[in-house]
Amino acid sequence: MSEIASIPSKRESTDDRRAAIARAARQLIVEKGVEGLRTRDIADRVGINVATLHYHVPTKEALIELVAESLKFEFMSQHVVRPRAHMDAMGRMDMEFVDFREMIEDRPDVMLVFSELIERARRDERIAVAIRPMLRKWRQILIDILSEGVRDGVYRADLDAEPAALMMMGAVVGFCRSGNKDFDGYERLVAELKRAIRNPNYQPQDTHSKD
Amino acid sequence: MSEIASIPSKRESTDDRRAAIARAARQLIVEKGVEGLRTRDIADRVGINVATLHYHVPTKEALIELVAESLKFEFMSQHVVRPRAHMDAMGRMDMEFVDFREMIEDRPDVMLVFSELIERARRDERIAVAIRPMLRKWRQILIDILSEGVRDGVYRADLDAEPAALMMMGAVVGFCRSGNKDFDGYERLVAELKRAIRNPNYQPQDTHSKD
Amino acid sequence: MSEIASIPSKRESTDDRRAAIARAARQLIVEKGVEGLRTRDIADRVGINVATLHYHVPTKEALIELVAESLKFEFMSQHVVRPRAHMDAMGRMDMEFVDFREMIEDRPDVMLVFSELIERARRDERIAVAIRPMLRKWRQILIDILSEGVRDGVYRADLDAEPAALMMMGAVVGFCRSGNKDFDGYERLVAELKRAIRNPNYQPQDTHSKD
Amino acid sequence: MSEIASIPSKRESTDDRRAAIARAARQLIVEKGVEGLRTRDIADRVGINVATLHYHVPTKEALIELVAESLKFEFMSQHVVRPRAHMDAMGRMDMEFVDFREMIEDRPDVMLVFSELIERARRDERIAVAIRPMLRKWRQILIDILSEGVRDGVYRADLDAEPAALMMMGAVVGFCRSGNKDFDGYERLVAELKRAIRNPNYQPQDTHSKD
DNA sequence: CATGAATGAGTATTCATTCAT
DNA sequence: AATGAATGAATACTCATTCAT
Q1: Between chain A and chain B, how many beta carbons pairs sit less than 8 Å apart?
Q2: DSSP assignment, residue B155?
Q3: Which of D125, A32, A45 has the alpha carbon at shortest distance from D117?
Q4: Which SUPFAM superfamilies does the protein's record reference (chains A, B, C, D) (predicted)?
Q5: Cβ count near C160 (within 10 Å)
Q6: Fewer Cβ atoms within 10 A, N terminus or C terminus of chain B?
Q7: How far is C-alpha A155 from the chain's CA centre?
Q8: Residue partners of C173: CB distance under 8 A and separation at least 6
């Protein structure tokens, strides 16, 4: 289940090996970037021979696709775990920010690798194919929340959901890219984003909210 | 900078060569990324031998620094050209957006290369040294404008200038990174950013605004 | 042939497997040459795992020997099938040409693989050991026929059987090597070979001819 | 001009290097076959680094083409050196055999490499492109001599020049392929070939022969 | 008998960099 | 200042072979 460098664990199933390889590759991408990624290093970290690596993942291209897929899986499963249909727009947006913070705290490699792959996707169609759906889905979730929020009056009436979604994504991705580990900074950014979209005239009449 | 006006050709060509090399390198970074950058390709594009390239720029590291410097020069000179001290915050912010649009229209490589280098700066301190001042200066300019705007009442009173600046930078950089060439999209984004920070109660005709 | 009739499945399969492997190997040698021969490809074509292939044929060298043996078997059995002792030299030579034509028509791989192995035999003594007897036997058969034909006056009196045999072998092997599938060409070649050796003064109606 | 393994000879011109590489490659093909040819070995024998080898000959495919070309050059220049127009068919054919013997004695690699490439040409169109003209030219020369000889009555009237040419080529190539260094054998073969085509009724002293 | 996984020893090719001219 | 030639150190990928099950 978990081989961290030192544990040799001979003769694993391909699925387990591929998972371990994806994990090691992601770590290494964080450390050295996609350009600094070496099959040898990955094999070493997994504790297998390079040839064994190639047995499970035939080419480096396939390897990067594997990384992209592993990211996609992790990234997209997020919204499946906690059902949010019953919440209002603001609540769901809050959940987004909480989830995101959780991610950059617990699995900081996700966003860094994601950012690397975004850069690479511009020139590599195969990466683009794996990355674009993630961006698209994220954007759509935000657009949906924002649109609903505008309809319900919690967000500015003049809010244009599409660019607003891009703005939010750009803001948080930009934060992660900078390598900033300062979570206060993250909270200040989130607070500002919330103010940027909220309807200043909104009266939380029936629910009588706290703030 | 280093060439003495009276000596016309022999001595100054190094600087010319370096400029040409920087230009070619930037083009190639756009096409293939920093990771796909090859000294041979640069030399070919400049029309010189690889050995000659190394004569002018000794190592690849120095080359990337040269690129970063050339970017810095271009990026930072922007705000020097047009004096803006006399304008109000909103006007200056508008100028920012116009300048930025001009840049991505006229020299689309600037932002793409910039984005590449941001990614690289995370692992390469020498790049970081060249890149960080640019980000810092940009952020400071935005913070200044935003702070002034808040003071003058044109921007939201509850606007937190620092994260707001990051938000704006992230939004436009994110737009460029996506490789989007749709300038309508850019204008929609800019419009949304303006609404995101503006003071909804601001009376533009009135010079001394009220709450 | 080697499996004992009463034991039906378990024991005989190794021989069957080896035969199937030899067949697949020969096909692949025709397609890609000995140098392009891959154990994996053979295993795939036979429908077994590479490890299984190695169980039946331990090394690649053994594999090539197996191919050579299979060729030898096929090649040398030819002259056993039809008893020819009763025929005269010319008739037996005709049979040789007919047999050969049958072979390159029905099992075109035999000569192509043979030619590959001849080339390889020059450097690989183990292959030479398997190939040389075939060449030797073939040459001897031709020498015998030619010698008899000379004795009987059907072939030129000044014919030197040994080099003549080499000439004939070289001619037909050369034809096959070229990858030529034109059987008219083959017949023209054969006709020329026959004229090249025949005794121009031979009187066919006369059974006991003298010079 | 001549670097034989031990002489390092730094900084040669590309043409010289390519010639040396072709020479070394041919030696190695004789020793280990095309399939056993290793870029490293060639570089070692030339006395250069592998990377230097690739500088002069970019890929292995190009290397084999270079070998084929070098062969072509040597093989085809043969008939240019000594003008033979004034000779009669038999004389010219004799010259062919003498030339050929000279070749297998002085440059025994030529025919061995040639034979290797013939084998390879069946699957590699690029090699075929270099090899086929050689075969074609050789065949044409023989056909021309044979046709003239038939016309002049020195060769059999029923001789079919085309297959006869193939027969002769096959015979001598077959001789070389066998790795036979026995020149007596060669002479016996040649003698037999001559008898195989000659007109038994030809009167040499008589200039205007009769049927 | 069969197989999925593993591996050592290659193998061509790449690339930044250096050197002699 | 410029260049053709040269090179060391990598690098992804291959392949026959082995091992545990």
Answers
A1: 118
A2: B
A3: D125
A4: Homeodomain-like, Tetracyclin repressor-like, C-terminal domain
A5: 17
A6: N
A7: 25
A8: C111, C114, C115, C118, D170, D174
The superfamily (CATH) of domain C60-199 is Tetracycline Repressor, domain 2 (1.10.357.10)
Across chain C, which distance is largest between two alpha carbons, in Å? 66
- CA–CA separation, C18 vs C12, rounded Å? 10
Number of helical H runs and strand E runs in chain D: 9, 0
Closest Cα partner for C167 from D170, D205, D93? Answer: D170
User: Which nt sits closest to B17, CA to C1'?
Assistant: F1
Q: Bridge-partner residues for C198, per DSSP?
A: C155
Helical H segments across chain A, by residue range: 14-32, 39-46, 50-56, 60-81, 89-106, 108-121, 125-152, 161-177, 183-197
Among C21, C30, C50, which Cα is nearest to C111's? C30
CA distance linking residue C42 with residue C25, whole number of Å: 6
Q: CATH for A1-58, among 1.10.1240.10, 1.25.10.10, 1.10.10.60, 3.20.20.70? A: 1.10.10.60
Q: Is residue A1's pLDDT more than 50?
A: no
Boundaries of every domain in chain B? 1-58, 60-199
Q: Which amino acid is at D145?
A: I
What is the spatial distance between Cα D68 and Cα D117, in angstroms, rounded to a whole number? 7
> Would the CATH topology of D1-58 be identical to that of D60-199?
no
pLDDT digits (tens, 9 = 90+) for A88-99: 999 999 999 999
Tell me the two tokens of residue C51.
């490890």
- Hey, which residues does D198 pair with through a beta bridge? D155
Alpha carbons D209 and A118: distance in angstroms, whole number? 88
Give residue for tokens 């004695």: D105
Residue ranges for chain D with pLDDT beneath 50: 1-8, 209-211
C140 touches strand E (CB under 7 A): no
* Residue recorded with tokens 């000044």: C158
pTM value is: 0.87
Q: Name every chain B residue with its beta carbon within 8 A of the beta carbon of A173.
A: 170, 174
D198: three-class secondary structure by DSSP? strand
Q: Is the dihedral of CA A26, A30, A31, A32 positive or negative?
A: positive
| Residues whose CB is less than 8 angstroms from the CB of residue A79 and which lie 6 or more positions away in sequence, other chains included | A99, A137, A141
User: Using an 8 Å Cβ cutoff, are D128 and C167 in contact?
Assistant: no
CA angle (B42, B45, B47) in 5-degree steps: 105
Q: Which residues contact C32 (CB under 8 A, 6 or more apart)?
A: C41, D123
Strand F: which bases are under 7 Å from protein Cβ?
A: 1-21
More confident residue, C180 or D94: D94
Instruction: Give the number of residues written for chain D.
Output: 211
pLDDT in tens, B87-127: 899 999 999 999 999 999 999 999 999 999 999 999 988 88
Query: Measuring from the CA of residue A8 to each C1', which nucleotide is nearest?
Result: E6
C-beta of residue C134 within 8 angstroms of C-beta of residue C72: yes
Backbone angles phi, psi at A31, to 5 degrees: -75, -40
Q: Tell me how far apart the alpha carbons of residues D67 and D120 are, in angstroms, rounded to a whole number.
A: 13
Q: What is the pLDDT of residue C148?
A: 95
Q: Is D151 within 8 Å of D88 (Cβ atoms)?
A: no
